[in-house]
């Protein structure tokens, strides 16, 4: 009988580090990093794997890939953990704008209202 085993990020291998480095390199190239240098991506990848050691490795990689397509800033391990746990706090200005326009004419669901509230807290909160 074949036993299915789940590899967790804690089982750090050079291949896993390189996969995470690849994702973080893409993040670094296309997202706002606020002066963070790309020369330490291998160290960052190892830190991500250590911090997310209890998460299935494939979920970490998929969450990083998801992040690249949905966020503007470089991720933290906490951001990736939220996605892995099914609780992404990723806010998109286009979605926000669409909901604000929709709100003028239509009733928004509770989920949509919460999205607007959390988006405004995250993006505008520091300015209020």
List keywords for this structure.
2 domains, 61% helix, mainly alpha, 128 residues
Can you walk through the features of this model?
This protein is an all-alpha fold. The protein folds into 2 domains: 14-84, no CATH class; 93-127, no CATH class. 61% of the residues lie in helices and 0% in strands. The protein contains 6 helices and no strands. The protein has helices at residues 14-30, 41-51, 57-70, 77-84, 93-105, 110-124. Helix 3 (57-70) crosses helix 4. The longest helix is centred in the first third of the chain and has 17 residues, at 14-30.
What is the distance, rounded to the nearest whole angstrom, between the alpha carbons of the first and last residues? 61 Å
Strand residues, percent:
under 5%
Query: How would you sum up the major sheet?
Result: none
Q: Tell me the number of structural domains.
A: 2
Radius of gyration: 17 Å
Number of DSSP strands?
A: 0
Tell me the overall shape.
elongated
User: Which bin fits the share of residues in helices?
Assistant: 55-70%
List unreliable stretches of 5+ residues.
1-5
Total of DSSP H or I helical runs spanning 4+ residues: 6
The ordered string of helix (H) and strand (E) elements is HHHHHH
Structural class assignment: mainly alpha
Instruction: Report the average pLDDT across residues.
Output: 76
